[in-house]
Amino acid sequence: MKATYAMCKYDYFGDKGYSSIIAFPLSTSGILMTSGMLLTGIKIIFSSDMSPVRYLELIDYWNAASMAAPPAYYEAILALPHLHAFDVSSITNIMTGMDFFSQSLLSRLKSKFANIRSAANGYGLVETSLAFMLWKKVC
After folding, report:
1. Residue 46 is part of a domain; what is its CATH number?
2. Residue 100 has pLDDT above 60, yes or no
3. Which of 59, 87, 132, 136 is the most buried (most CB within 10 A)?
């Protein structure tokens, strides 16, 4: 949870009242990450429907400041032909894990989510624990 706390603390990602939408909160690492986020006071948004469309609807409705998902899930979001129909202007931060987060993917996300100003990627064994190593990037 320390890595999540470091990844999510307010002085890096936003103000009090900060919210994050999570694609897969019920994996082992997702539960630990969610716990760490709750310790920092972040409001967590997720749904039992984990489709990319529902994810975007929740960003639009709740004005989420951050989004957390594996890189493959971000690829699915970028492939949606009607991505432009959702208001994603509230997103300022991307968090990811479970796979390699390429510069190409970050660039393509920034082209669709224009207000992204930071990104973070946790590395660790998702089946057993949360990140043991973390990188952050100010965009």
Report:
1. 3.40.50.980
2. yes
3. 59
- Per this entry, what is the length of the chain? 139
pLDDT, the chain, mean: 79
**Three-class SS of residue 42?**
coil
Q: What's the CA gap between 21 and 24, in Å, rounded?
A: 10
Cβ atoms of 71 and 59 closer than 8 Å: no
Instruction: Decide: 59 and 90 in contact? Cβ < 8 Å.
Output: yes
Residue 95: beta bridge partners? 68, 120
| Domain span including residue 106 | 2-138
Q: How many domains does the chain have?
A: 1
Tokens of 54: 């529902």
Tell which residue, 55, 7, 53, 65, has the closest CA to residue 33.
7
Residue 9 to residue 73: CA distance in whole angstroms? 24
DSSP strands (E only) in the chain: 19-22, 43-45, 66-68, 93-96, 118-123, 133-138
Q: What is the pLDDT of residues 120-138, one digit of tens each?
A: 887 766 565 555 555 666 6
